[in-house]
Amino acid sequence: MNILLIEDDSIEIMKLERTVSKLEVKHKITKAKNGEEALEYLKSDSRLPDIILLDLNMPRMSGIEFLSILKTDEAFKYLPTIILTTSENRADLLECYKAGIAGYIIKPLKYEDYESKIKKVLSYWEVNELVKA
Question: What CATH code is carried by the domain that includes residue 112?
Answer without folding.
Answer: 3.40.50.2300
